[in-house]
Design a protein that fits this description.
The complex is a heterodimer. By secondary structure, chain A is mainly α. Helix content of chain A is 64%, strand content 0%. The longest helix of chain A has 57 residues, at 332-388. By secondary structure, chain B is an alpha/beta fold. Chain B is globular and about 75 Å long. Classes of the chains: A mainly alpha, B alpha/beta.
Amino acid sequence: MSDKEIIIQSLKRVERRIRANRLLSEFALGATLFLAFPLALKVLDLFDPLRASTITVIGGTWVLVFAAYVVWRGLRRGTLNQAAASIDKAAGLNDEIKTAFWFIHNPRPSDWVEAQIHRAARSAQSASVDRYFPRQIPKLSYLAAAFIFLFIVLNFVPLPWNHNWLALQAAPAFNLTPEESAILKQTEALLKKAEKLKQSELAQKLEDIVQQLQEGKIDAAQAAQMLDALQSQLDEGNLDAASIREGLEEMAKDLSESDKLQATADAMKNKELNLAADELRKLAEKLGLNSSDQNKQMQKSLQQASESPRLGLEELAKLLKEAAENLKDQDQEAAQEALDQAADELDSLQEKMQSQDLKNQAAQQLQSLQQSLRQRQQASAQKGQRGQKGQGQGQNGQGQKGQRGQQPGDQADGQAGAEGEPSDDAAQGGQAGAPMPGNSEGNGLMPSGKGGGDAPREGAPTQLDVKLQQERVKGIQDEGREENIEEVSKQERSRLDYRNVKSELSPAQKDLLNQDHIPWEYRPLIKNYFQAIRPGDKPAGKSTEKADKK
Amino acid sequence: MSTAIDQQVVTFQEQFKKVKDEVSKVIVGYGDIIDGVIMSLLAGGHVLLEGVPGLGKTKLVSTLSDVMHLKFSRIQFTPDLMPADITGTNVVQENALGDKFLEFQPGPIFSNILLADEVNRATPKTQSALLEAMEEHSVTVGKQTHKLDAPFFVLATQNPLEMEGTYPLPEAQLDRFFFKLKVDYPTVESLHTIMNRTTKIEEPKVNRVLGQGEVLEMRKTVRAVPIARPVQDYAIRITLATHPQPPYAHSLTMKYVRYGSSPRGAQALVIGGKIRALLKNRVHVSCEDIRSVAYGALRHRILLNFEGEAERVDTDTIIKGILEGTPEPT
């Protein structure tokens, strides 16, 4: 190997070692500085849990910046000239290698230059890279390691609000309170029990909604709205339980007129439809043993019971009627078959009623969950408004208008709503406090398509002229039986669901009443209209507008 | 080939050492001064020794001439000294036939080693008589130019400028001195040695160890030492930093300096560096060599401005600042 090659090789070795040491040092410094950032973030997370999206964005940015730093430093290479200067300095060679390297690249026909290169080659050969440039672990790397250790420890701190980032855990966008979680579990359980009615997919939908809420894909208001939709879906095909029960009672009353059907009637009256079905089957089996008078009595009772069936009892009535006609025709076999089918229908009804009960309970739970979410949304909106206080007048106005309807009683009213039917008051109380983007007026009117997606706002609750005083209820003459009378109060707003109010409407009329086709967006309009035209009262709409203008 | 160069270097070092050892027999201490004087001789330059009277400047020079087989002259500069007293003059002579003619009578400058003692006591006019001789190694009298023998080496001593009856040397002449060496008061230990040597009956004697040819050979050796461009660049940057103009000017230079070093300063740095490299058994010049000769090579080439003069700024301070502020090449 020539002197020049010796020098070049030596310089390359030195350059590699210097670069390795430099990179180690710079990476240690960079890692220390960069690790301080996620560490600080993790500490912050312990006090104010960060969402997965926040961590992902910050973490991703951090990784990119760190990678860029590593690449930037990694690509930086030293020159052999610098290596020569370094080895000269480290070994005290007084620019010998540097001079030789320069003469290698700028050769001159001189014995002195050759001699200089020869001497430099000897010096380079004897200069140990390990001696002058030992591999060094930078002190900062210990600090970086400590940061990593601390970061790991912080992730595993057993605190209930701590989230292990290493296990890809982060604070959900929305935390359910223990009460809400309990409600959710109950609702899911109820929905799963109602599986026989093929409502199990609703449980899945509910889980999806909560998951989306926790992942921050939707906010609490959207979740409440989706729950609302879910509830509407749950209400679809609802049986009018009260009407059916009444109908069954009426039927039982008619059936009880026949001695043979007395047991069935009693069971129906006691709402034990399975028992009633069994009794009916037994009766069908022993139908041949009955006297003709008994059969006539039965036929008359069955005929009476099958008349004017309530909604949901049409099939039963039809079968009873069929049995009555068969009895009348003395077609015993057909009558037996019809009675068996009626028994089956009773079993089916029992099942449906049970499912309906479960659904109703689930709906109630859903309503509670919905209300809880809205309350929290309202609370966060108030918090936000306090933060924005002092900003533009227009913003203030919007927030304040949005707060209308936040009266404590409103939410209570909502809870007092009838089973399965969301209360308007509850909707008002729960939603009115939230600031509604897209609704600059804040008067509760929200046409669909503009800022849609938020809960309906129906303005301030209607102030009724309630007179809380004793009321004399007219007695109803009857056969002396004790009866609970439920009807619309004349002096106070009723808290009874109108569907449960005893009325003389036909089932078809009642069914019609049950359907509410008014879109919720237009409810405030209609409400304002009727309030405005209310006789002997100031127009509520105008007063509301004045209040808004203020 | 490398062995021959090595041998040359060793010979150089040995001869240098011989001269230094002989001089040191008489001159106590002042190792750096002795080195500087010999280096100036080997560089083909001249040296200016500055110091208060009685520090052995003249003794040093006379001793140096004693250890070399070289023709030595001494001129004591006084205010009434005339240029012709230095260079020589044409004298009317008469031949055997009685014809008269002018004949040049060489002055004391026609020697190998010229001691210009207390050079700043003469008037500038007389001082200037040395200009041509120092640079061109020739003397022009009338219409005739007379070459001086090589080596021609001027050793001038001067008292500090603050002393009475001194005339500052003109810039042009100062620039012709390779080094300006400051002779400080000896240390206590050195004084003891001086007392011991000079207060006895027997005075130390020196031997002649270096001849004319050897000096010239040594000069050749010095010039052969290679210098890499980066190191040369370092010397040039230091030189340029003595100038108050950007881009290389140092902050001290900009504040206190009127004129910086001429290219002769850079030459002195490089050649001085080469000699030092040889003395350090190297065949290349390092930045350290440049730095070590920077004070001697530049201190007399930096002319202070009014502010510098007023604040009595030492040029060594400026050079120190420049050396600290000029990064080595990488």
